[in-house]
Amino acid sequence: MKTPLFSGTGVALVTPFRKQPETVDFTKLEALIEHIITSGVDYIVALGTTSEAATMTDSERSAVQEFIIETVSGRLPIMLGLGGNNTQHLIDTIARTNFDGISGLLSVTPFYNKPNQRGLAAHYRAVSEASPVPVVIYNVPGRTGVNLTAETTLSLANECPNIIGIKEASGNMAQIMEILRNRPAGFRVISGDDALTYPLLTLGADGVISVIANALPQQMSQMVRYASKGDLKKALPLHNLMLPFINAIFEEGNPTGIKALLEIQGHITGTLRLPLVKASKTLTNKLTTLCNELRNQA
Q1: Hey, where are the domains in the chain?
Q2: CATH number of 8-231
Q3: Per-residue model confidence as pLDDT tens digits over 15-52
Q4: Catalytic site includes residue 167
Q5: Pick the catalytic residue: 2, 28, 43, 138?
Q6: Is 209 helix (H, G, I), strand (E, B) or coil?
Q7: Would residue 112 show up in a list of annotated catalytic residues for this protein?
Q8: Of residues 28, 43, 124, 167, which has the active-site annotation?
């Protein structure tokens, strides 16, 4: 039986950059971490897709990881994003990584190569054996070009004791429901899509790894707690409140939208690294209007 480590609201943490030069703004990162912790989230995901880890150097990634661990200081679990499309290179990276202060590993399906299901399963078995901490697999075919099927997910869940869950961002409700219906006890099914979190929670999912929770941590955390307890009358209004924000922040890609929203809120600058670019004026105006409407409702 697997040990359920991650539930509730995890935040896919952004990385604030200065405008010039585009270096990591650790002061803003510290303030953002403190804001989301005090707002009631359950765990933090470091160096995931939303962090722009793909555009960081090895030394930057190490510095950001160490800073997050030091700032969180044991108050919440930390899940570390590590993935790749070269299995041996990923295993070597895991071997070199310091996992002190890290509670779990989030590893995306190999991208670009487009492996078949046997290849995906073999990849994750190797990652599971190499990782010193529990592994959450991450299925996001819109980014990787390949879908991890329910059959493969369930096979890994049953065969690999160190694979404790999946972040499911396929958007395929039938597939996710099959995983939820047939998963072994303790295997976490985590929403990887903010907009689908509420319906997935009603079906028995264990929470979310959320982008919008960078900017609306209290609202997402409360919604997840209410829905997880079956109090849908309190959860649904929070879902409906967040939904326009969620739809807006993904209009021009992630983390473009969430960084624009965080800049409007005064938490960070909206600076991104190429090939990503800042949000358009149209999107910025839309997010500003939503923020003003939210303040007027308070």
Answers
A1: 8-231
A2: 3.20.20.70
A3: 999 998 889 999 999 999 999 999 999 999 999 999 99
A4: yes
A5: 138
A6: strand
A7: no
A8: 167
